[in-house]
Amino acid sequence: MGCHPATYEDLHDAMRNSDIIFNTVPSMILDREVLKYANPDILIIDLATQPGGTDFEAANAYGLKAILAPGLPGKVAPVTAGKVLAEVIPRLLMAQISQREQELQFGS
Fold it and tell me: In the chain, what are the domain boundaries?
């Protein structure tokens, strides 16, 4: 689908080179400083739980289209969202447990 994740370090480039941004970080990540680099035709969809991660006032001041849609996946596709979470969460937990075990073994 042409989707690419962006790290915090990549945000300025991602904002400049993207048509649509989905934010899932429930902390202010798309602030005024980041939004000033945005493609003027960008659509920002903030899926993060409250308070969201987009400065909607700044987005509006820059003339950007930004939508707050917390919980959207669960609202429009609850079964699919549940299946995805059921697959992803155990993998994330196992990865964290494995990492902790390695840190204990090697004293990291």
Answer: 1-70, 74-108
Q: What is the mean pLDDT of each run of 10 residues along the chain (108 residues)?
A: 83 94 92 96 90 94 93 73 76 80 74
- Token pair 């934010």 is at which residue? 23
Which is the CATH superfamily of the domain at 1-70? NAD(P)-binding Rossmann-like Domain (3.40.50.720)
Looking at residue 34, its pLDDT comes to 96
Identity of the amino acid at 65: K
Torsion, CA 9, CA 36, CA 19, CA 81, rounded to 10: 60
State whether residue 51 is helix, strand or coil: coil
- The answer to whether 3 and 17 have CB atoms below 8 angstroms apart is no
Measuring CA to CA, which residue among 29, 20, 19, 25 is closest to residue 47? 25
